[in-house]
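Q: Could you fold this chain for me?
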Amino acid sequence: MAALTGASSLEPMIDAAVNTLEANGFETVVISAGRSTRDELIAWELLARSGCDGIIMHSDCLSNDQLARLLSTRKNVVLAQLINTQVGRLAASHLIKSGHRQLALVTGPLHYFCAQHTLEGFTKQLGCPSSKGVHMQSLEASLDEEGGANAMNILLAASKVPTAVFFQHDRMAIGALRVCQEFGIRVPNDISLLGCGNQAATAYTRPALCSIRQPLVRVGEHAAQRVMNMINGVLTQISQEAELDWASPSVVTRRSVRDRNDSSDEGDVTDNRISARERECLNWAAKGKTSWEISQILGVTESTIIYHLRNATRKLNAANRLHAVAKALKASIIDF
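A: Sure. Below is the predicted structure, expressed as structure tokens.
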């Protein structure tokens, strides 16, 4: 029997490990450790007393010294940890290479080591020569949509609003995107958003969210293979594993991060904000409504609708109403 412990956000990693173990004839037990040192220690005690042949463990709250003490009491234990410092460095590097100089980082609560390591990696990248002149601010929030929304509200109220924000979890970025849409902040024209986890929903937001992909499945499979090797007395060739870059995160590029180095990247859209009424008129125009039809829907005169649509066309540097609608859709000012 092999046992695993981990948080629900690590489901792809846990599923991969379970599938690999069960395909090789092992029975598995999975315990979700919660989000505190106490919960992780309780999960460890349950597994350590279970009589299982091996343990795969992921920890967010235990220090290296605590983990070393626990591992010294049991045989056949594998740690399945993610390289969060690389995540932080990669996120900062991607935003800086995209021409951003005012950055913000929103992590989970800093009593989680994954949040500490992400902050450490992000900060270290800003110390590189290529990051000269880059400024950052950091916040901590809950790892969900509400946490991201609260952090976004704070950042938008700051005296110097960042041009790009990295969130430690995709759910946080989705919450932040909702706040931007509510306040008429254009993503990525006014502000760029970068998430982490590459959850399925990120490909279907508007705009689709750029995200850091972590190789959860590969980490789970690798941990399962290692614990099976330990149980079966097979030596793991660590030197060969170290040469492989399979555990490194990567950027999934989508439309929520603007390349400020590229003058053609929405560069023909001015910084003049589209008002709520102008956005409303553009939305109806995108649905094929005429000025008169929009005036009847909104309860105003036709000349008022024409006025708002002309203003929106001018702000978008568009040739005509149809062109303005197309540019507004492309810039995610309106939804189709």
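A (continued): The radius of gyration is 24 Å.
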